[in-house]
Amino acid sequence: MTRKYLRAGYRLVGMHSGIQICRWTRAALMGRRLCYKETYKNVTRPLIPDAWERVRASLRLMPRFKRSRTIARLTLVKGQNMHNPEGYSELALTGRPSIIELKGYSWLGESKQRLPIRAMPYHFEMREFARKMEKSTGYEIVAEDPISRVVLLARGRIYRGAVT
Fold it and tell me: Whole-model pTM?
């Protein structure tokens, strides 16, 4: 019986217990890949080392799309990134999007494993953040959906559902 468990990857502890190293832990120890749970522990740590530089480069390219409507979407998470609206305004203005969409984090699906329900902002908090961005960007709040916790800011005039 002992051989059967040893072949399955178990190791004996004392005279009566057996343990098995998780396959993810074994892979990490061998330098192959980290446990999938590690990706959720640090929400703010990007999986791509130069992710921030790529985001900034993409924002710098956005003004070149003159014939297209462009949208910058920020997913706001209470306790994580709902601070410094002026800094986000500066980033958004780099891309000069037609619309800035502020979306509140929703406690759904797999995200429940990495963030608490209190990370979901209330709509009034979203609106407050949007008003601060409105002042520092010159964009105007043009639409809101309290149920989805979404606030849209746009530059230019609104007519027949289009932004110019």
Answer: 0.67
